[in-house]
Amino acid sequence: MIRIENLSKYYKEIHALNNISLHVTPGELFAYLGPNGAGKTTTIRILTGLTKHSSGNVYLNGFNIKKESLDAKRQCGLVPQSINLDQELTVYENLDIHGRLFHMPARKRAEKIQELLNYVDLADRQKSLAKQLSGGMKRRVMIARSMVHSPTILFLDEPTVGLDAAIRRKIWALIKKIQQTGTTIFLTTHYIEEAEFLANRVAFLDEGNIVAVDTPQNLMDTLGAWAIDRVMDSEMETLYFETREDAKAYIDSQHESFTFRRVNLEDAFLALTGKKVK
Ligand SMILES: Nc1ncnc2c1ncn2[C@@H]1O[C@H](COP(=O)(O)OP(=O)(O)OP(=O)(O)O)[C@@H](O)[C@H]1O
C-alpha cells in the first residue's frame, strides 16, 4: 500500500511536484502517466528514498518514508529508468550483490536468486556478463534484482523505454505475472498503450500536478468510444462518438477522408491537459 499526502518537491525555483495526494491499494497495478518533465521520476525517487521531498508525507505499507526510512525501504524494490547493472559482473553476481546489501543469509540468497532467474526466464544466462545481454534481457535482470529481498511494492520507472514492440510485450507479461503474486506495482510510463494494457488505475501527471486518477476505461469513456481524426485549417482535430454507427454516419455525410479509430488514453490525456503525452 502506498499513501501519498500533499507531496511537494521544489528544485530551487522549479516546482517539480505540487501538492500531490494518492492512495495505491495493496496488489494494485498503478500507472503514473505524463510527458517528459512531468515529475514521474522525481516521484519515484522520493518514494524510494533517493530524493528528499520538500513537504508532505509518504507511507509505504504504513511506514513513513522520512521517519521510518529503513523499514520503508525494505518494503520496496526499484527498477530505475536507466540500465545500472554492473556490466563487468555476471547476471548471478548482479543479483547476489543486491541480496548482500539487504543482509540476506547466503543460502536464502542463493535460493531466491535461482527462483527469480527461473521466473524471468534467464536461468541459462546466469553466468553471462551483464554487458553480453540484449537490452530486453538487461531489463529482466533488473526486474529480478529488484525482487531479491522480496519487496511487496515494486517501482518501475519507464520499464520498457527503448525496447522494441515484441520485447516490450514480453516485459508486460512479466509485470502482469508479478502483480498476480500480490505485489503492488507503481509504474511510470509515457507509453499510452502500456498504461492502457497494464494498469488497474492511472494517474495523469502534468507539470507536477495530478489532473485525473481513474481506471483507463473510465478515463476513455468520458469522451466516447470512437474517434475520427481530421485536418482542419492545417490543425489536427479529433471528433468523438458514442457508437460506431454515429461515427460512420458522420463520415458518410462528409466528402473528406478521415482516420477512424477507437478512443484511447492519449485522447483522455489530451482532453484534460491540452497536450500529447509523447
Ligand atoms: N536534480 C534536479 N535538479 C533540478 N531540477 C530537476 C532535477 N531533477 C528533475 N528536475 C526537474 O523537475 C521536473 C520533473 O523532472 P522528472 O525527471 O521528475 O520528470 P519525468 O516526468 O520523470 O520526465 P522524463 O519522462 O523525461 O523522465 C523537470 O522540470 C526537471 O527538469
UniProtKB/TrEMBL annotation:
Which PANTHER family did the record assign?
LINEARMYCIN RESISTANCE ATP-BINDING PROTEIN LNRL
Question: Organism, per UniProt?
Answer: Desulfonema limicola
Keyword entries, A-Z: ATP-binding, Nucleotide-binding
Q: Does the keyword Nucleotide-binding apply?
A: yes
Q: Which GO terms describe its molecular function?
A: ATP binding; ATP hydrolysis activity
Give every ABC transporter domain span: 2-232
Key word Nucleotide-binding present: yes
Q: What is this protein called?
A: ABC transporter, ATP-binding protein
Known Pfam families for this protein? Answer: ABC_tran
Which InterPro entries does this one have?
AAA+_ATPase, ABC_transporter-like_ATP-bd, ABC_transporter-like_CS, P-loop_NTPase
